[in-house]
Amino acid sequence: MAASLRPWSSVPRPVCWLLAACLLLQLGWRVAQQQAPAQARPLPAAPPAGVARLASLGEPLAMSKAMLLYLQAFEDQPGVSLPWRALDYERLAGWLETAQTLDPRSQYALVAASEVYAGVADPRRARRMLAFVAGSFAADPQRRWPAMAQAVLVAKHQLHDLPLALGYARELRQLATGPQVPPWVREMEAFILEDMDQLDSARLVIGGLIASGQISDPHELAFLARRLDELSAKKAK
Asked: What CA–CA distances, in Å, run from 214 to 173, 176, 180, 184?
């Protein structure tokens, strides 16, 4: 068999040059790949909840956590650190919604939306996260009120949108009525009305809270009574 092998000297010179050129091209391509600047991958569309549930193999809670961990890790890609404003927030909301559907008792997606992704320096993106929180809140207000209260604060202090904050605060007062919800949550609407100089409306809200019996703590009742007196005095000026 060794006798059948042809020596290199018998290979035509053009073929040798061609092989050498191919080798150099391969080496150059590998070097270029290593030196090329890293490029961020766009966030893919979230799988529908039904598809994700099937893929979970009977473990939807684990799949929900895996999806949220994927989102958390997506910001740090090889050689690239993505700012939040570079993410597609419509797709981001889709991932959060699917994760929330798979594990409706978890607060993870709502906390991420209201306290992390809503902090982006882009009002349009921040509003998209608040809309996700508000939509989720209505489905389970007794457990999801913390994220909605945070949405009120973001709307008021970050977006400076008092009408939006007022709408969220009103939903809190009307829907978050369970005994585990602290009184200050239901009082947020009155404070925002006062900020908007709607003093009569603020007085009506506070008076309604007192009359409804939703607030039974004596200290809170005394606080609200003082607020009523202060609003009356401010109105009289």
From this structure: 10, 10, 11, 11
